[in-house]
Structures are given as C-alpha cells and as structure tokens.
Amino acid sequence: MFKNWKVSTFNGALLASYFIPAWAIPAAKIVISPVHGLFYERANIAAAMYVSDYLQFGAVATVRFAWLLALAKLTVVGFFAVFVAKILREPGRNRGAADEALGLALVLGGVVSFASMLLADKVGEPAALRLHATELLLMLSIGIVALVETPSAAPKQVPADASAQADAAAAHALQAAE
Fold first, then answer.
1. Most buried of the four, 4, 5, 49, 122, by CB within 10 Å?
2. Long-range contacts of 152-159 (CB under 8 A, 24+ apart)
3. What is the pTM of this model?
C-alpha cells in the first residue's frame, strides 16, 4: 500500500495528522462556548487579544469573530480530511486526485496561520507567535515540496514476448563478450 506514495502525499498525510486534531479541537471549543473558546485556547489567544484590545469589539462582535475563526479552521480541517480520504483509496492516489484538496488546505491554512502570526506579533504574545510561525512554515514547506515534485509516471507495460526477447538478447550479448 505504501510503496507508490509521492513525497508530498506522505508529508501531506503527516501534516493532516497534526492539523486535524490541533485545529478541530479549539474550533469545536469555540462552537461550544465562543468567548471561552476564543480567550482561553492557546491557538486563539492572539486573535482574541487583538480583537478585544485593538479593535474593541463588543460581546456580539467578538462572538461573530470567534465563529468566523472557527469556520475558517474547520474548513481547513475538512480539506485535510478529504485529502486523507482520497489518499487512502488506491486509484485516487495513483492519479493525484488528492492534490487539489491538499493544495486548498495548505492555502487556506497558510492564510489563517499567517494572519494569526501577525496578530500575535501585534499583541506581543511570543508563545502564540512561535506556534503560528511553526504552523505556517510546516504548510509552506509541504506546499513547496508539492510544487517542485514531478508527477509520478505510470509504469510501462512491456509485452511478455518483448521482455523475453530482451532477456535472450542480453544473454546472447553476455556470451559473446565472454
């Protein structure tokens, strides 16, 4: 099953195994309790501090911002889940059918991580800044590998009689050389 995976497919699967729980759990906490999930989760604290300190949003606007952040993160999680589902199917993996889902997850996740990194820098939250910078670098590196990697070529089908003729020619050349 794992013998014909591309490097970007394998790295994307590893990345999905990190981002699906790391972004789904804080997003689910926002859905359950928007203010508590926004202000008391490490992944969301920089955005929460920026919204409350710099933009001075009221309670309703803060809840709307929290739901928008949760929607963005759940969208990225959804694209990673589609990517994982597609790579687990043999025919789809061989044709590169999962590359679009991975690309969308990387682009949307990169935008969210970059924005969160900028907000963490603005509010002076170094732990959140390191977290979002690491997530952004992970997504950028997998994106670069996916862009640079050449598509895998289909294996050549050699007729049985042609391979037998090639083997006989090789054996004859070896005997002539001796």
1. 49
2. 152/4, 152/6, 152/94, 152/96
3. 0.78
